[in-house]
Fold each of these.
Amino acid sequence: MWYYVQGVLALAMINVISVVGLAVFTGFTGLFSLGHAAFIAIGAYTAAISTYFYEVNFYVALLLGGLMAGLVSLIIGYPTLKAKLRSDYFAIATLGFGEAVRVILENLDITQGARGLPGIKVYSTFPVVLIVTLIVIYVARNFVFSRYGRMAIAVREDFTAAEMMGINLFKVRLRSLFFSAVCAGVGGGLFAHYISFIQPSMFTGVQSTMLTAAVVAGGMGSITGPIAAALIFAAIPEVLRVANMWRLVAYGFILVAIMVLRPQGIFGYKELSWKTFSGLVRKTSRAKGGAA
Amino acid sequence: MTVLEIRNLTKRFGGIVACSDLSFQVVQGEIMGVIGPNGAGKTTVFNLITGVYGPTSGQIIFRGQEIGGKRPDTIVETGIARTFQNIRLFKNLSVLENVIIALDQKHVEYSLPRALLRTPAVSRSEEKLRKLALDYLGIVGLEDKAYQRADSLPYGLQRKLEISRALALEPTLLLLDEPAAGMNPEESLELAGLIREIKNRFSLTILLIEHHMDVVMELCNRIVVMNFGEKLAEGTPEEIQENPLVLKAYLGEGYKRA
Amino acid sequence: MLLQTLVTGLAIGGIYALMAVGYSLVFSILNFSNFAYGAIIMLGSYIGYFSLVKFGVPFPVALVLTMAGASLLSFFNERIAYSSLRKRRAPSLYFMISAMGTSIFLENMVYATIGSSFMAYPEIFKQQSIRILGSSIGLLDLFAIIFSFVSIYVLHYFINNSRTGIAIRAASYDSMITQINGVNLSRLIGLVFVLAGALAGISGIFLGMKYMAYPTMGWITNKAYIAAVIGGLGSLPGAVVGGIILGILESLVSVYIASTFRDVFSFSLLIILLLFMPAGLFGKYLEEKV
Amino acid sequence: GQKAPQTIKIGHAVALTGGSSMWGQAEKNALDMEIAKINEKGGVLGKKIELVAYDTKADQTEAVNVTKRMIGDKVVAIIGPGQSGVAIAMTSVTEPAGIPFLATTATNPKVTVDEKSGKVRKTAFRTCFIDPFQGKVAAQFALKELQAKKAAVLFDIGSDYSQGLKQFFVEAFKKGGGEIVAEEAFRSEELDYRAILGKIKEKQPDVLFIPTMQKEAAMAMKQARDLGMTDVKFLGGDGWASPDLITLGGSATEGAYYVNLASLEDPGIQEWIKAYKEKYKMDPVMPNPVMAVDGLLAVVEAIKRANSTEPAKIIAELEKMKDVPVLTGKLTIDPNTHNPLNKPAVIEKIKDGKFVFHARFVTTD
Amino acid sequence: MLKVENINVFYDQIHALRDVSLQVEPGQIVSMVGANGAGKSTLMMTLAGVLKARSGSIFYNGKPLPTEPHLVLAEGICLVPERRRLYANLTVKENLLMGAYLRKDKKGIQEDMEKMLDLFPIMRQRINQYAGTLSGGEQQMVAIARGLMSRPKILLLDEPSLGLAPLIIEQVFKTILDVKAQGTTIFLAEQNAFKSLEISDYAYVLETGRVILSGPGKELLDNPMVQQAYLGVRH
Ligand SMILES: Nc1ncnc2c1ncn2[C@@H]1O[C@H](COP(=O)(O)OP(=O)(O)OP(=O)(O)O)[C@@H](O)[C@H]1O
Ligand SMILES: Nc1ncnc2c1ncn2[C@@H]1O[C@H](COP(=O)(O)OP(=O)(O)OP(=O)(O)O)[C@@H](O)[C@H]1O
Ligand SMILES: [Mg+2]
Ligand SMILES: [Mg+2]
């Protein structure tokens, strides 16, 4: 049983890495992406190709994957953020971007198209995944609890006022996007070396939306909330196995229920965010305040 | 010394000319009032100065530098800060954080890689910021509200927070857009005192839009009166109060007080 | 060849347009992307199928049943998944996630009850096609295009000129104040969802006739979202134009460039368009005055 | 001294939800029925067989999870999965654990043979033929029986199955002297092919090969006929094997041929089909259930021969398997590829709105 | 006409109104004076049905007041909210039409619309402009006009003079008197305490959520405590 639980956990943690990245972007700048699966894919393919064809060291490959995903995020982020696309427009643009990436992966030679890359070495053992996840969470937390996170929040809250505080909207948003893409890329690299076989069809828009769902259900502007949500979302389908074919019905139902009953997220609106911020805010009243 | 010079400034929104061939100058250390009927274009002038809009034509020269059409964040860097007619705080953040954000540009002493690894320098810098922010809150008397959510403050205190946040940007020119709106006469006078105090303490130059005439007359060295986007009059408070054009367009013939 | 390609594109675009309009309608009042819309269309398609095949009713009756059924679903969708969020004035992202949950729920509900097999509609407009200038267009497609134009025009007029229409737009900006103005918000929003549901029903039955009914058919609405964005969210004429542009572009790329890269082209177009017109062709950004 | 388990657990990795659940459910039904039969006769090695089935949703990550779970449950072998991609992903778990699986309809060669090293995967087996064979069958059938000279292909670029089968068909067709006049692709889930079909029409192919799943194939045939492609013959692979193909495609599918692993009309399995229909009140959705039963029978036979339920021994026996009677005939496994040898292909034809057994087809090199 | 008995209103834990009781008689102008955060707007919103009182009751002509905003309006009670709250995405004209949402008399609506444009002539030039782009004061005018369009029996005015030029303030107060003359009851919250007390028949002083003083407007105007705290008069 532990073998199986470990497996589920490892995949859940790999997911957590991407979710944490997305939480930094969506939760803190207020923009949401429906194309993050593309960054995971890019990370996965870059890392896998590095170890598979070029026998690059696994950890170097992970970094390469993250970096590549980050670079690609600039391709979509630079023009769209420069043009100041807003919420749904930005989301649809990223949705389109995600699909486009998948088409390209399906057509490239090096990725072997839809047939995918089988036989990737399994390096992502449980301890490796655990350690990488903890590192990513730590770094993300630091990011968020620094001026960079604070500026992002300001932009999310009121971008006009933020600009008037001397904040460069474009830089702040792009930086967060880049960070989240790197996380997704690292997650993708781990994933490829866990599952040992990747295909473009594994990185769909549905996956992107599930990532966003975890961030929102966990609580915008929180890191721990989305982590919890990602873990819970990974656990629900497994726990519901008994329900057989009804399990995904229940899954959808639970998702709606979370939003309806706790629209501020599982743990409430940014339960952790600034409150614990280097001991800054000690007796805040915000802990329980809703987003109303 | 002239700090800000507006030269033939014009701004059109479609058919509406919100600001038309406007020129005036602001001198170092003065409080200049901008008054005029509703829709005269006062806020638009502020928006042009702070880069919210780009001018249709004309120039805005701040300390010898043309700033018309630049991005707001670069304009802030040159030393201009403002408050908003419709309050724009970061509502979900605490009062303190609102001020810290203003401090983030000039007072932070760490780079992104350090932030990611959270070196001791980061914590030190953050602690310094917190202290500094509390100082700024102290100026407007909000330090005991530092940890409340900004939007739970009553209207009047929100205005004060906006002022304190603007001060934290360390401007040399401060633009205040109807700071006394929604205050009763007593509170307005108190606010006027505060404005004078910060002006002296930080040696600011202030541009003030206000409809509360007591405040304007009390504070301003000079006043520009706008009407339909144009300059209707300019002068000392005494001159303005006597000006028949101003009385007719803005104050009302019955205006007698002070 | 070119003409035929254009006509084919127009036919696909007509369907996109029809779906985009219902989606845009909901957007225009609640300001969020109702990702459950695809699932409502899908269920509409099933209702149409069962009416026609299992109950054997004539087509017009089936159409009405479908519209009614989808309206009802759409209405309950709002009541269950959105109304409490609305009352708490949750940000639009929360609505979207709730919508996603709804769509997962509905889709898998179909899998669990009806199963994964595909339902083919009887051939009502018996593959008739008419020839215009040497290119052929299916009667069904033609009907869909005309139908979308008419329903969209009516809707557009309604939203812009009627008392209720103004109230819908007002509520999209500030629902609290609309209530102060005497609007029964629950009823108004219910009405919008009923309307959108009726459109979903029509789309569903057309999609079903053109292709088939199956659990994941809601994905086609992705294209509708894109069409709506091209046209400008919340703009009904925009949704139509967006749908048709997308349909034609896809056909042209398929034929003259490469069908596999079709999506890359349409998405690139989308992104490039947004760079120059960040609110789509007809959308407007409400610049909040500072 | 561990207590020996009372039953023999056999895993089943199967898509019980999602788009492939139609076949998955049938697979599970068939296995349940077969195991009941075996247990009634006293089981194997005096123990009853217990089926441990988990849903994979036809998704790789889910499959990896459930495989781990089955291994935790101490299964001795696994039946399934039905999808090549899923099977390949599963090998990352079964290989180190040493638990064999017998894929049902995963026809991609890479399932059992590691592409890079060219070595056979120790734990991966299957009971179906492979795509190169299927592609060759389709190509030679088109050339010989349909007398086709020009073929066009419409495939799904987002599907590994479709991409692979297309490639093998094209190779074999060219090798046999035919000409490929068009290779056009669409992306998964898309349903309107009129634009590309128009392009194909201009090339006037004799045969249109559509190596996709039934939904896409049905739509393509329908739209092709709509566009006035009246003479072209349609040809497909085992992805077509669902009655939905005919309901969806309607009259357009009339006269189309496709290659299948097994046929409902295969005389050898009529009795079994009758039993299935009696028990479940419907036809088994071909070909997955028979392939799964083949796998089960092979495992049972291996256990018997090894006189042990140790997975390593089962693997050894599977590798040696020769002419073992299973549902679809006799099973021989090639130890170098773990593929069944001489598994015949069935050509089915759509006639009067029904799948009709057309012929067994043997390829020539 | 309107009777408030011991209501308590909360924002989460913040106790914004404490046992507030007051009464509004038909045909009168009743006003509220109070510092920032005293709870004036909270009371207005509660009367309009936007906020719910946790305890206490509100009676309108002897019957309990409905608690749904649209039903309150249907009873003839209309709130002009603080800080304007216009529909930024609608034109000025459409905003006015929304004010008349429950009215069915097309002609009457048209006439009233003309009246409003005469009242605030600058609105006439802006009639097809999006309300969101109006200047602050212009918006305030539209907000007042929108409230009047419903022809309320009781008009709740929350800081109608906010951000208005002195000349226009005069006009607004004149309008308030006109509206009163036509028989509409007015409940007014104003920071401009001088003017509002001057025209009020009766007034209440609110401090941190409690009524601490009440009396006829003129009387309060002469009250030293009121003068000092709200009128800026120094003795
Ligand atoms: N973004 C915009 N689009 C269209 N018109 C605008 C825009 N911004 C301002 N205006 C118009 O320009 C004119 C001047 O507006 P502005 O806000 O500058 O007035 P103001 O002098 O600040 O008035 P108030 O004292 O009422 O705040 C107004 O008539 C307004 O309608
Ligand atoms: N949305 C809210 N959430 C939490 N507290 C609030 C909220 N709105 C108002 N309050 C609090 O309720 C109290 C009463 O506020 P209210 O707005 O009613 O005062 P007011 O008398 O209208 O003040 P002003 O003159 O500034 O408009 C204040 O302490 C305020 O901080
Ligand atoms: Mg202004
Ligand atoms: Mg108030």
Amino acid sequence: MNKLIKVFTKESAVVPLIAIVLGLLVGAVIMWLGGYDPILAYRSLFNKVFGNPYDFGETLTAITPLVFTGLSVAFAFRTGLFNIGAEGQYIMGMTGATFIGVNLHMPWYIHAPLAIVVGTLIGGIWGMIAGYLKAARGVNEVITTIMLNWIALHLSNYIVRRFLLEEGKGRSFMIDENARVTIGWLSRMLDDARVHWGMFFALLAVIFVYAILFRTKQGYELRVVGSNADAAKYAGINVNAGIVKAMFISGALAGMAGVFQVLGVFMNQAIAAGTTGHGFDGIAVALLGGNNPIGVLLGAILFGTLSYGAAGMSFGANVPPEIIRIVIGSVIFFVAAPGIIRWGMKKFKHKSSKGEAV
Amino acid sequence: MEQARTVVEMRNITKRFPGIVANDNVSFTLGKGEIHALLGENGAGKSTLMNILFGLYQPEEGEIFVNGQKVNIDGPNKAISLGIGMVHQHFKLVHPFTVTENIILGSEPKKWMGLAVDRKLAYEKVEHLSKQYGLNIDPYAKIDDISVGMQQRVEILKTLYRGADILIFDEPTAVLTPQEIAELLVIMKNLVQQGKSIILITHKLKEIIAIADKVTIVRRGKLIDSLPVAGTNPNMLAEKMVGREVSLKFDKKEAVIGEPVLEVDRLVMKGRGGRDALNETSFVLRRGEILGIAGVEGNGQSELIEALTGLSSVAGGSIKLAGVEIAGMTTRQVSEAGLSLIPEDRHKHGLVLDFPVRENMVLETYYQSPFTQNGFLNFTAIEKHAERLVKEFDVRTPSIMTDARALSGGNQQKAIIAREVDKNPEVLIAAQPTRGLDVGAIEFIHKRLVEQRDMGKAVLLISYELDEIMQVSDRIAVIYEGRIVGEVKPSETNDQQLGMMMTDYKAPQGGPDN
Amino acid sequence: AKNENKNNGAASPGSSASASPTASADESGKDFKIAMVTDVGGVNDKSFNQSAWEGLQRLKKDHGASVKYLESKEPTNYLTNINQFVREKYNLTWGIGFLMGDAVKEAAAKNPDAQLAMIDNVVEAPNVASITFAENEGSFLVGVVAGMMTKSNKIGFVGGIDIPVIKRFDLGFEAGVKAVNPNATIKKIYTGAFDKADLGKAAAASMYNDGVDIIFHASGGTGNGVFNEAKERNKTAAKDKKVWVIGVDKDQSLEFGDDVTLTSMLKRVDEAVYSISKEMIDGKFPAGKITTLGLKDNAVGLPDTSTKNVPADVLAKVEEYKQKIISGEIKVPTAQ
Amino acid sequence: MDIATLGNMLNTALVFSTALILAALGGILSERSGVVNIGLEGLMTAGAFAAAVSAYWAEDAGWGAASAWVGLAAGALFGVLFALIHAVATITFRADQVVSGIVINFIATGSTLYLVKQLFEGAGETSLVNETFHKWKIPGLSEIPIIGEGIFNAYPTTYVALILVGVVFYVLYKSTFGLRLRAVGEHPSAADTVGIKVLRMRYTAVLLSGLLAGMGGATIALTTTGTFSHNTISGQGFIALAAVIFGKWNPLGAMGAAVFFGFAQSINNVLQLFDFSSHIPSEFIYMLPYVLTILVLVGAVGRARAPGALGEPYYQGKR
Ligand SMILES: Nc1ncnc2c1ncn2[C@@H]1O[C@H](COP(=O)(O)OP(=O)(O)OP(=O)(O)O)[C@@H](O)[C@H]1O
Ligand SMILES: Nc1ncnc2c1ncn2[C@@H]1O[C@H](COP(=O)(O)OP(=O)(O)OP(=O)(O)O)[C@@H](O)[C@H]1O
Ligand SMILES: [Mg+2]
Ligand SMILES: [Mg+2]
């Protein structure tokens, strides 16, 4: 509970809020300089997200994978590992889910859960490779995860082409109806938006990660390893096993992001030329959320909302959607360097007190 | 010695840190050719005052005069140009660099129009300086490869290289062996003879009496007294320092020795570079006794600890704990078998500095009931445990939710001892348990070790400080090059004899000349 | 107001090539809103997305329709972007590119009143017009050019990703080469990407080093690297060692110059978008129909600028094969 | 595989490696001073953008062959500009260095594309530069078998990169500046106490890393693409980061890693051209460079030791 309260204490709540405002301001100034109407742009963004049930539902759908990849990166960070490989784990999770979804035919209460479990496991294993190489051979996980991203992309393309391809479609067969995790009634309520159970799993994952990290013996161990590996060794904790476990969990979380994109959104996997960037965005989300599970949730909401709303900006105000990356970047910047905000506030206070003196 | 001319005068210095006044209107005067001791408890503000003189901190109030001139020391550069040099409490050495590189850093001899470092000239200069002051340093050695004593000499050379006339030594002897301390004192005397002035921070009253001309005492940031050393005695200094009477004599009951509990037999372990770090080390530890392992740092003590605790595997020999073979067990198994360790490096090995005290208190027992139930941490139990230990061991912390990093060194150490002792081990290994602590804290910790002994536990005290070994141990084993070379009773030996055993003294060696 | 133009009107670079004279502008499309959604390649992909947008811009110029596009940043956007237009009651929404198939299908099913059109994929729905191209036919013709003009008898093909559309280019090209020059060998490299010029450059370098003198690329932005490598070589190469690239989708000689561009395999996405949109304006929207545009429709083929580098006899041969394909005398393979 | 093929492969590898070498050198300088730089991708993006735009303008203004050099300089300058953000955030305001690096990546991709659209009438790509760099054949040296074709018939930027490897090596290990820089990255307070301006050194290093990574990005625009668009830089910055670590923060090591990677890429093309290997599914060939990198790392002995103070903001008086 204490941590929960900490999140909402003064300093830690005010700084992000100011950061968001400043980030939006930076975006506004740039738009204004470029000859666009920032007010119209932000209004369009807001309308795109909250203007109708459909887009609201789709925004939720856009947020969901970011929660998972954000948690993935944050979890690894907490255990002292920098997982740049959420991207690859995401793809592998996707492939695992597609494989089960396409190739098997079972009742829904087995099929969907099985697809989720298999995809998640494969994402986890993909993460574990980097963990194992670090534990056993001392290979820096930053390099291996970068390399494994590319390997995952091509490997999954191979699997789709070789085992799952629907001829002439450039993608796998559609997954079995029973493997889908869409929520019919909610989807109908939201004008057919592609909402799915993944978002509830995302919320569960937030709680799960929080509980694991801060409530369980396992998480305690992993945090000790992350914070001071030497002390962990002296305390009799198996550091290498910790690294492998942590990367497994991290990978599994990223894998889940991919799993639900397949089972809830696309229903198939395309042969992809490149990665979607959800894994990299996960790094940003994790950092935005201060590597705290609840922070990650909030970060993903912000990130997802802005990204999804960007299309509205470009539709309603003809603003190039790239601007939103500048906004997000600025928000993270101000969150990460609270010194700037404090410095600014001090200057501000200083000035106003000077003003009074005069 | 000529009549002391004032070289440094610090007037009414005040320095605040968030929540604390580290220096409260402190004045300090250093005469030329003087060795001036600065004495005070942990956290009294000694380092802070000296860091101000060296330009690392800026004081909120006060003035500084060097050689009669009012100066504004806005950075180390300024201090260096004023002829001030500082040997820091925690060495400021770049470990992957060589001795020479460390010494010349910042004022390198140059060649090719300043484009390149003139290494040849640098090595020559360092060699020359080292000879001049009798420091005997290998200019080509990497810092990583030399002993702590040598590292300190590098620090001294750094200041001399920059032409310092005023040298500040911040707890220089805390990490040295008796021999090294003796040598250092000689070096310091040497330096003042060559016209340097020295400020010496130390917790060791003996050293002050032995070498200092004047002593200034601070307590909780405030100046208490400044007086000539002649005419003082350790008890008087200690009392001024803590503000109450302290007994410097350490009393303990006669040990009631029981059956053997830790039997180490011909332990062999390979060290770095293939040489034997432990070379058939054997000894026996019995219930109700404190066995002190005396020795110069680097003679296998660290490896011995690693072997005993299962951190590293041994190449041969056996370790029996209460009759059970523990060689080959994991660290956790060893711990469960009844062995506790107070590690040498509290920051690196003893604590997770970014965790609150609460979580540090269960670092080795978190997985056991009642701290973990069904895989979940039981914070009620953990908190109760932490509260109890904090109280029992007088760990001064604002709360058990405070991060360990925020505790002072002494309190960090108390927290570790609380944790280890509370595990109720058969054998408690205490490695350098009082390094860098003030007399009050040292007293507290020593008492706890003896308490364990009196409860019938066995304590293995590994220390580089002879005083500590002599005071606390019931029996002393001397380790040299990975081998126990002799065992003595404290009452039947003295510093000289021990010192000789520790260096495997055979013939007189060429020490620093004077 | 300035920015309104950026999306809605101003010609993007290179679009003037096929624009019809402005004089003929009428206002028949004034009340029509037509939009397109790009795939992740974006509207400036120098390929079908850009070509499609040029078609729409021409439509605006000629007939006063209001046109707009949205770029998809990731595959989840396909459907939401289409829906954005459908909800805004656009008269026609185009899904551009093979990858959009599923999204168009979904949107069409959920919005039976909306009119949609699809480029490069087939969507069987009553309210969708599907347009595909017989890339294999056009590729056959550039294959004929390559087969007749190679000096080394080694010809290269650089593909993006090994997917059905690209396979059509590949196989058509191969058939064309073999038809006129059975002895020529064809080296193929699939770079695995449509957006990595460095891979294109490396692939081209390997091929040219291997003695290849003409490369046909069907690899989007990856092809920039192919052109770049060819240009580099021609800078220093002796006259008889000159190497060539055959461009794709648009007349790439306009961008990369005719000193390296032998010819291009045009794929008139702009024409298709323009004409189908016009049909919609005129009330003749081919809903539910699948249109495959090939040589007979002049929707694929060689640009007029080919005369610069391709000798008349070769062009004559190309014309001959073109007729044979149209007449059905030659069947160009589409897939293995 | 004959001798000529080997030379050609090396040549191709070097084209690919040049940008990686430059960016990795930048990464080394920054990280050696104690500042993590995962913003290399963004810095390269900034460099590629500025290079493509200014070379195009210079060409338009009739500068001819000098245009490419103008582009290279502009790329370097723009890299510095973005590195300045990183420096201010991490050094002055002590922001988390990883976070700041990610921010650089975001802002660089976002703002360059935005600027392209502003400058080129809404287009997502700059117009093609014709006056890009062209290969220079070094007379004499280029006649040597294998390495003649492999190394001495390369783009001027490749020569620049190779020379810079030497320069950075020299600076790091022989010069006063390098000694101080490494000291700052290993133990800033040690450096501080001998009067080295820690923050100023770090600023210098981070800005230099922007310069080099910017040049790296520019290289890609000016030798490979001739334009700048959203995917001109796609992952090279991260590969360069890997090269920094792979090369153990040593310029020669990083160069080795970068060339190795380029070589693995060119093997990948050559494999597709040989009959014996044409049956291997192409996906496995694409994976090759990445798999090889991991295998080499696994086989390599000795863990890389990062600079001691890497990632830690410096506070004066911190213990
Ligand atoms: N950088 C700092 N930030 C905040 N507080 C500090 C800092 N440095 C020192 N202090 C505070 O100032 C007080 C004096 O610290 P200082 O290091 O000068 O003590 P000391 O007398 O040198 O102790 P010791 O004998 O342990 O070396 C400490 O209690 C500490 O709380
Ligand atoms: N960088 C810092 N920022 C804030 N507080 C600090 C800092 N460094 C030290 N302190 C404060 O200084 C106090 C004592 O620290 P210090 O390390 O001087 O203890 P010590 O008793 O001297 O132990 P040691 O044996 O480690 O020197 C602590 O209360 C801590 O809060
Ligand atoms: Mg201290
Ligand atoms: Mg101190």
